[in-house]
Hints:
Blueprint: E1 37-43, E2 46-53, E3 56-62, H1 70-84, E4 90-96, E5 101-108, H2 112-129, E6 133-142, E7 146-155, H3 156-168, E8 172-178, H4 179-194, E9 198-204, E10 207-213, E11 219-225, H5 233-251, E12 257-261, H6 265-272, E13 281-285, H7 289-298, H8 309-359, H9 361-391, H10 396-407, E14 412-422, E15 427-436, H11 440-456, E16 461-463, E17 483-491
Parallel strand pairs: 1-4, 4-8, 9-12, 12-13
Antiparallel strand pairs: 1-2, 2-3, 5-7, 6-7, 9-10, 10-11, 14-15, 15-17, 16-17
Amino acid sequence: MDTPVTQANPRPRRGSKRWPPPRKNAANGEGRTRRGILGIAWVHGVFCAGVYKRNNRIAGWNAPEPVHTLDEFAAALDAALEALRFRGVEAFLVLEHPELKHLVEKAPAFSERAARTYLKNLMRRRSEEGEPLLWDWQRLSGSRDASVWQIHQLPRRFYDSIDEILLARRLELARLHPFSTAVQQLLLKQTRRAGKPILIACRAGDATALAIGNERGEPLLSRTTISTWETNPGRVALEINRSLLFARQQFGIQVERVLFAGFGAETAVESLRARFPGEQETATVLATPLHWLDAVRQINRRQSADLLTLHLRRRRRYRIIRSLIVTGGWLLLGAAGWHAYDQARAWQAERAYLENLGRREASLRETYEALAARDAELAEARAFLTAVNEGQLPPLPGKFLVYLASLLPTEARLTEFSVEWDPERLGWKFAFDGTIEADESTARQAENQIRRQLTQGPFRARLAPQAAPGSVLTFGGQNTGSQRFTLEGTIFEN
């Protein structure tokens, strides 16, 4: 069966108009009819596929020929889709391939979080120093000083090749489990039934997977040997004995039961039983390739190794960041467009206003000229009022006359009074004459009282030298009961 190679099926880009790709019809012209989740197992040449709904397998298919290369994988996948008539999109893969490596690493045992951080940094450094990798880990066993973890690593280029094949057929890979996950699930079921440590040897195409679990079903060892009990039974027996010895020396566990699973398991029991040094009990377990898919489908993905967990998490995070950037870009573009529209609308309003002003220019100029003339008149009036207010002297003469009248006794009368502004001295000068109806002694006392109150009063008057006592006050005359007086001086406070 001729199958297009990977390069002939360009990888559609998620989110583009070409995603999802158009479905391929089966050879008989009929489309796919089954929906659900497609499970694929590709384990050292063995290929099988099954359709699952609610963790129940409703259909299955096994490849009649070994599948080793990516082109053979694509051809087998086309045949499976045609036979199963699958119409869904989601798929998961159980993989065991020479490209998939399994390493054992020790990490700090005081904190599982610290151990995971150590392993994450270790694998990130390996991925940066070498080719990009997909990885995940499983805890195998623990001790007081360190915990033992099994790391599964797959080159990113190999995953991309498989992903391109699936995307070209409108399938999206959601989970990628190593084959050891299925073996450990079988081991967990058998140890729970027996309640004692068990070693299971599972035929996986051209290889044999070995796993040891304690009485609680926790995995202690997981390894794969590229040999089978049909092609090289001595090598398989040697690896089983090494695994038994490792469990006894490292963990102090004596494995009492050895199980064989897969094609030819009954023959393996008869041919390998004599090669075990101990008295282990041997048995067979039914485990076809489709049983591997069933075992992986039923387990919780958080409790199993999944090489796509970190990769999909990073891709989801990058997708969110990219969506936020694109959304922010569209928002900025929309804001820029709205700003441009608002500026254009404001300019149109401004241009309409300027055109209206141009039409009203003549009337506005007339109004301006009338207002300018009115403003000039008001400015002249304002200047005149300012000049009048600044040139007007304060009303001191009247205030001083009132004050002087309050000082004069009842016997005194003013005959002359004057207050003038002296521009040379910038002050007020005064002079007044009067008479006092009293004798000489009484008149002198009244004059001294008036002089003292003028100099010490609120006007701070300063009397002229000729206004010294007795110089201007004249007594006598034709009427001896009337005394005449004269006072002159300067006022400092107004």
